């Protein structure tokens, strides 16, 4: 695979065949060292990553972002289990000839990262997990009242729900939401299609099944882990991240003040510094 020093805004969308489908991806940043593969959140595509996080990490790391099956620029139907999503992620990584890799999973991507790391120990060196939690833990994989209300209000107003779901309703949270939405709109060309309602429904089923799944023995992953979240996560209770760090062997927990599910985007400068130091 050819590395590139493009940025998140200029890197072209590429495609690779794996597991019977075609995956869309972008690669940029430092062309050497162990790659850091990003696994994104519910309904997200590769265009929804915060450019400040991507380019901040890419200043020191080889960064790869991709759309899982049936999402964005990737073909096929979205799997209805996290395990199948993890299988696709592994197929994608191996199709690019990457080994080992580090993983950064955000929200649903954090579920996927846990499965990939546990089931493929020789493939994954380190994991970073944000706004996520362990399988079978109370509040993980369930639709709470705040999540349903915020999503419904945004839908009625024909607005993207991320400002309400990812950020607190304080002045700092509202300002951070505006900044984040502006940043993810910076890329103007070569964008991938938005996630369809059918794809979102399949992801919701996978998330629900994750919540009902028996807990995994996370202590079986022996590599270092970084767990991050905001102190007031409206989508997935922050206690899930605390529990996740507790169950991992070698985990560092970071909670950002006056921040929610998207705390790593609101506090992107701190997160980039912490993830860069952790994953070197």
Automatic annotation (TrEMBL):
Entry-linked Pfam families: Abhydrolase_1
Gene Ontology terms, MF aspect: hydrolase activity
Source superkingdom: Bacteria
Keyword Hydrolase found: yes
Domain AB hydrolase-1: 35-267
Record's keyword terms, sorted: Hydrolase
UniProt cross-references to InterPro entries, sorted A to Z: AB_hydrolase, AB_hydrolase_1, AB_hydrolase_fold
PANTHER family (alphabetical): AB HYDROLASE-1 DOMAIN-CONTAINING PROTEIN, HYDROLASE, ALPHA/BETA FOLD FAMILY PROTEIN
Name of this chain's protein: Alpha/beta hydrolase
């Amino acid at each position: 695979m050819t590395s590139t020093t493009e940025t998140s805004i200029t890197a072209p969308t590429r495609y690779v065949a794996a597991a019977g489908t075609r995956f869309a991806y972008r690669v940029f940043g430092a062309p050497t060292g162990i790659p850091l593969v990003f696994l994104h959140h519910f309904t997200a595509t590769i265009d929804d990553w915060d450019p400040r996080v991507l380019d901040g990490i890419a200043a020191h790391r080889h960064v790869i972002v991709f759309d899982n099956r049936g999402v964005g620029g990737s073909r096929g139907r979205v799997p209805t289990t996290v395990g199948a999503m993890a299988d696709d992620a592994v197929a994608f990584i191996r199709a690019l000839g990457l080994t080992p890799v580090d993983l950064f999973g955000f929200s649903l991507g954090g579920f996927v990262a846990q499965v990939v790391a546990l089931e493929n120990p020789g493939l994954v060196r380190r994991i970073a997990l944000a706004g996520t939690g362990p399988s079978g833990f109370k509040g993980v994989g369930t639709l709470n009242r705040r999540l349903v209300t915020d999503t419904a209000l945004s839908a009625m107003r024909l607005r993207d729900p991320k400002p309400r779901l990812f950020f607190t309703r304080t002045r700092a949270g509202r300002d951070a939401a505006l900044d984040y939405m502006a940043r993810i709109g910076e890329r103007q060309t070569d964008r991938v299609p938005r996630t369809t309602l059918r794809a979102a429904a399949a992801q919701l089923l996978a998330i629900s099944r994750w919540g009902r799944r028996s807990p995994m023995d996370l202590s079986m992953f022996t590599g270092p882990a970084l767990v991050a979240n905001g102190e007031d996560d409206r989508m997935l209770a922050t206690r899930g991240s605390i529990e996740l760090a507790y169950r991992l062997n070698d985990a560092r927990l970071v909670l950002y003040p006056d921040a929610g599910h998207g705390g790593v985007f609101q506090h992107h400068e701190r997160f980039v510094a912490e993830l860069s130091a952790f994953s070197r």
